[in-house]
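Notes from the 1:1 (GR / supervisor)

We went over the backlog. Supervisor wanted to see one worked example end to end before approving the batch request, so GR pasted a single chain during the call. The sequence is below; no edits were made to it. Supervisor asked that the structure be written out right there so they could see what the output format looks like.
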Amino acid sequence: MGSKPDQFLFKVEDFFPKKLFYEITDVRVDSREEIIKQAKKRKRRAKLTRDGKLIILAADHPGRRVTALRNDPIGMGDRFEYLGRVLRVITDRDFDGVMATTDMVEDIIIVDYLYQKKTGKSFLDEKVIIGCMNRGGHAGSLYEMEDVFTSYTPESLKAMNLDGGKMMYRLDPTDHGSLITIRECANAITELGRLGLYSFLEPATVESREKKYAFKTDLETLVRDAGAAAALGETALYTWLKISYNEDFERVARSTTLPIMLLGGPAKESPAETIKSFEKAMKSAPNVRGAMVGRNVTFVQDDDPRAVAMGLSAIIHDGYSVDRAMEYIGKKRGEDMDFFSAWSR
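Structure output shown during the call:
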């Protein structure tokens, strides 16, 4: 199963049968209460991390009207394709977990519910599940900087037995909406801390380029972003920061003692570029503790999302070199493709 990329073509339906996908709506219509029960009985980890490090799959982009993938404006807008790729990653028992909006988290829990009915086992036990909180700053809108909290609340995260909440603010110094978002993030961090839940905060200074916002990732900006973000809320004891990578990441990491997760960023053509930057960043400072990655895992051309995810996981958890991680990706390609199809025919 360690085929080369040009010999491998990942097809979602080979892993995630459409019959199972369409059952999700049946459960939503007929058995909603079972999903809440399923969430509440999920076995959570005793500690957030097993070894002080964490890799999380991000699956929240469509919730902010972000569906573009390379040259396809709605490449991430096919829920069958998107969910199947997310499931491909998180059903690997060694991958840490997922961060998503309410609907995606529920879809995942429903599939786990159907899987348990057939097998008696859960693939979500001891996974870290993080709920996305603010998606109101729809991409391309006049109110994009006022990214209000339209998804999970601290109370709903607690009620659904999740591990924490993810939030972000984009700082445009000329837009008052940024201040509103920062204030909401601070309040959410405070409320999550009072409930004993973790906050995963992504601060990002942006600038307008050709009617779109682009992240600023120079050293001075990232240092200032990290310092300001770490100070939000009445406590930072439960806060992890998501920071974009740059070549001066050792200096960026020294701007705070909070644990830092690397930000995956826009989709790339192959996993090699992401692997290289993550390996460098993980070696840059002791408080760099992992990554939250999305499109660079779920939508890496024709490659197997699970293989790419586990290559990155090996960099983060086991300190693999770039070459060793790429070899590991080759070994993981095509593994366990009948995870669902074996019982859902």
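Supervisor's comment: The mean pLDDT is 94.
Batch request approved.
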